[in-house]
Specification:
Blueprint lengths: L9 H12 L9 H4 L5 H16 L4 H14 L1
Length: 74
């Protein structure tokens, strides 16, 4: 199964990274809070992935950097 973050466009990843970095969205990263930045059909799976990374110990700054890295790779 493809990682839900890899299904996002680079522009969506960058918007999400900026929102995480500036505190506009934060853990537990609800699908509702993400719908402004990602497609509705991806919001739930992206929410689950971000929550998993957060509970695994990834800080919001590290998460934002990771999202930017994925955007650059795509």
């Amino acid at each position: 199964m493809k990682d839900p973050l890899l299904s996002l466009a680079p522009s969506e990843l960058r918007a999400l990274a900026t929102s995480v970095r500036k505190g506009r969205v934060s853990a537990p990263y609800s699908a509702l809070s993400l719908q402004r930045m990602v497609q509705d059909d991806a919001a739930e799976s992206v929410s689950s992935k971000l929550s998993f990374l957060s509970t695994s110990g990834m800080s919001s700054e590290a998460l934002a950097a990771c999202l930017e890295l994925v955007a650059d790779a795509l």
